[in-house]
Design goal:
Length: about 450
């Protein structure tokens, strides 16, 4: 493969910029451009920073150079990195000189792709690295960190190794049928498959919470006009984000805002008050509100606690899935006329009991006691591969009669499906798509 180079730090002014070279010619290109009195290239010490001068056309840049010898580098190839002063123009000039010496400009994620191809990381670890870079909450960072450190890879490989053992048993039985008890071989294989099924199901069960960790918990705030939905949103955000007036129907559209609470993202959607209206714009808002209710994980059903529920309230209540609903009774600073068991009584105006809403959301989604030391499946591609592998195993176990050669074919399919997660059997298009999501220089 060609030797590649790219700027590995964000463009712009900063303390330092790093320009990275990877490939067979990395050191020879580096030595042709860098001068250091103490550096003897025939006896260069890997992983040691050398201070010297990088030769530009009409200037020199005092910088640091470090050499990582294959295979002990990020890419698994020879790697040279220059740590230079952090100027965009300067970094570009350094990169240009490296390209003049024969290196090729690296594409998005090409360093990481080479790391994968050279066995330095699995595909699931690469995806977790992207998630760590893009993380916007503590929960997301913790979950992706475990995946990036190979916890999913290790578990998948163990299951694959057990499937390999079952394949070995089957193939011995197929090659030497006169020395094998077919019923016994089938029983051994089915027991291995049952064990694999239980472990895969346990992994896949974490996907629901894993999705919420990655994308956040979607919470729709719904109720009749003027019960204080926007006031509650402002209190939850601790800022005046939504317009609040005494005029019914002020909120005409959905408004989405995200809050980090106890390390988790909660996406609040303030909705238009749901009621019959002749106003065309308000009607559109109401339809969007109904869609938000259907698609959300949790619905905060806001009621005015100083009034009893009326026909409109009850119609709206019937529209909400009982599994999603959290009753929020606003205006608790006034005389109470409405009482509902398990409801949260708040006053958005006086900022009373607002944090109870956050805690109830975590409790309702079962994320209040999440164990971050356990694997969480946060990636939909991994979830889909697990689902298909589970489906294949369940189909085999349901069959009362299956010849050993069919068993053999089906188990190989399961093994390959699991290999898509780690990248062992993933096709080139999937691999290219994943690494294209990385930034330049990574």
């Amino acid at each position: 493969m060609s030797t590649i180079a790219q700027i590995s730090t964000p463009l712009g002014s900063g303390g330092i910029a790093i320009v990275r070279i990877s490939g067979d010619d990395a050191l020879s290109i580096g030595r042709s451009l860098f001068y250091c009195k103490k550096l003897v290239y025939n006896d260069i010490t890997p992983r040691l920073l050398y201070l010297g001068d990088f030769k530009l056309d009409d200037a020199t840049e005092k910088c640091m150079m470090v050499y990582f010898k294959s295979p002990y580098s990020y890419t698994g190839e020879d790697v040279v990195e220059f740590q230079i002063h952090g100027g965009e123009y300067l970094a570009t000039k350094v990169l240009d000189k490296i390209l003049e010496k024969g290196a090729v400009l690296a594409k998005n994620g090409e360093f990481s792709k080479r790391a994968f191809l050279n066995g330095k990381m699995s595909l699931d670890e690469a995806e977790a690295t992207i998630d760590m870079i893009n993380a916007t909450s503590d929960a997301e960072l913790k979950a992706s960190s475990r995946l990036a450190h190979g916890k999913l890879f290790d578990e998948i490989k163990k299951i694959q190794d057990e499937l390999k053992d079952s394949l070995a048993n089957l193939e011995v039985a197929l090659d030497y049928p006169e020395h094998d008890d077919e019923t016994k071989s089938e029983e051994i294989v089915k027991n291995i498959l049952k064990n694999a099924l239980n472990r895969l199901k346990k992994l896949d069960e974490t996907h629901e919470s894993g999705e919420k960790i990655k994308f956040g918990i979607d919470v729709a705030i719904v109720g009749k006009p003027n019960v204080g939905k926007s006031s509650i949103l402002n209190a939850l955000l601790n800022e005046d984000r939504a317009i609040v007036t005494d005029i019914k129907g002020t909120t005409r559209d959905t408004l989405k805002e995200t809050v980090n609470y106890k390390g988790l993202k909660i996406n609040f959607i303030d909705t238009a008050g749901i009621r019959e209206s002749d106003d065309v714009v308000e009607k559109i808002g109401v339809e969007k509100s109904k869609k938000s209710i259907e698609e959300s994980d949790i619905v905060l059903f806001v009621l005015d606690s100083s009034e009893e529920m009326d026909k409109e309230d009850k119609q709206l209540e019937n529209f909400i899935d009982p599994k999603k609903i959290i009753y929020v009774l606003n205006k608790s600073d006034k005389n109470q006329k409405l009482y509902i068991d398990g409801a949260i009584y708040v006053s958005a105006k006086e900022n009373i009991n607002i944090n109870s809403i956050f805690d109830e959301i975590l409790k309702k989604t079962k994320l209040d006691k999440i164990n971050y030391s356990e694997l969480q499946i946060t990636n939909r591609r991994h979830h889909n591969a697990l689902k298909e592998a589970i489906k294949e195993i369940e189909a085999i176990l349901k069959e009362n009669v299956m010849t050993l050669d069919i068993f053999d074919i089906q188990i190989k399919k399961i093994w390959k499906k699991l290999g898509e997660i780690t990248g062992e059997t993933a096709n080139e298009a999937i691999i290219d798509e994943i690494f294209s999501k990385f930034c330049l220089g990574k």
